Amino acid sequence: EEAVFLRKKITLVRAFSLLIGSMVGSGIFISPKGVLKNSGSLGFSLVVWFACGVLSMFGALCYAELGTRITKSGGHYIYILETLGPLPSFLFLWAEFFAIRPANSAVVSLAFGRYMLEPFFAPCAAPVPAVKLVSLLGYYMVLTLNSWSVTWSARLQTALSVIKLLALALIIVPGMMLLAQGHTENFQDAFDRQSLVLDKLPLAFYAGMFAYSGWFQTSFVREEVVKPERNIPLAVIVSVIMVIVGYMLTNVSYYTVLGTQDVLASPAVAVSFVQRAFKSLISVVPVLVALSCFGTMNGGIFTFSRTLFVASREGQWPPLFSMIHIRRHTPLPAVMLMFPLVTAMVCIGDIYHLMNFFSFSRWLFIGLATLGLIIHRHRHPELRSPFKVPLFVPVSFTIICLFTVAMSFYSDPVSISIGCTMVLSGFPVYYLIIHRQMSSRCRSLFYYLTHKLQLLLEVVQQEIKTY
């Protein structure tokens, strides 16, 4: 009885919550170990954390400008498609679907399961099968919610963003109190150069940038944001500054209470912190951290489903995934598609190997997207963007991203080679399926199956375009 399309339901507060809820998740509770291990010392790890924050701000500003120049949803995918062409955008889509997004979701899900079970098994480590089972249950809950309602997903994200900030505050406050009392012994010889290994620094940056990742989430839902020209840049700038300050204080608190050896030895840094600083909250903080991870899962599913939705609308993904449920107004097929791959990666994966595996592909394509901004400016000098950043911001961000990607081949050649192979495997698929037209028999079978699934899922193509 009414037009079927994705409604504009992302207000400024919800955009801010989406960014905070996506950035402050599992990263700050698991990445400190990876940053410290690969940077070599406490002082250099703090430098890496701050540098990652500045780099994230540069990338967020670039994406805010891209969001005012290109008015479609889809994030990295649509920016690469509009600036660099269909082949690079399909390679991103291929890598995102088969490597980046399921590995990222698996990392966050495993962190959720580990922190959720930690209070029940302390001081012992939680059994791995139990962690994976709880991880999958949490992921399936978020998947169901995003299939059911856009409004409820956005409301949950807002509520969980408040919980995330509370979890950070419970870590920051005791650390700052101890520091004010003169407990600075853990910061002696903070910049010990003997343990610095330069070829491991890209992995330290990957771990740090993973914690900040999420600053690009509003670009995935651009068509659903109210007043995007104003709200996207405003939400991006405020949220990234808040997260940089929060992460720096959180890491200082970790080191004040635990020290470098305890951070490296801990499977769950936030839990070890609470055991040392706040024994009365030993069962509270891990649950807050788990809820933070839950919010990150929710934001990830919410945004990536829009990438598949837009790619399907642009003709580079099966048309079923650009369809919307006739009553729920959610992109149901796109939301459900990640279910089997995430399940497989949670069952067989390890957090830190998964992190290196997907980080190569993610930062390669983010660097290409900001390179596209430079090209788009050159091609369309007449286009007046309501939000514009100085040219050195996209240039420096692009160079750093691509340099870090190149250096990572020396740091972890096995994981990076797997990620590179995954990207390159998209070439024959593009030329065999996207570039060439299917035969009439294959096309008939394809549309027959699409029609049957459409009836089963009760979905239709959106009736009007909102861009």
UniProtKB/TrEMBL annotation:
Topology relative to the membrane: Multi-pass membrane protein
InterPro entries: AA/rel_permease1, AminoAcid_Transporter
Top-level taxon in the UniProt lineage: Eukaryota
One MF term in the entry's GO annotations: L-amino acid transmembrane transporter activity
Keywords: Membrane, Transmembrane, Transmembrane helix
Chain ranges passing through the membrane: 12-30, 42-64, 76-100, 120-142, 162-183, 203-221, 233-257, 277-297, 332-354, 360-377, 389-410, 416-434
UniProt KW Membrane keyword: yes
Compartments (UniProt record): Membrane
GO cellular component: membrane
Main location: membrane
Protein name per Swiss-Prot or TrEMBL: XCT protein
Provenance organism: Uria aalge (Common mure)
Lineage: Eukaryota, Metazoa, Chordata, Craniata, Vertebrata
UniProt gene name: Slc7a11_0
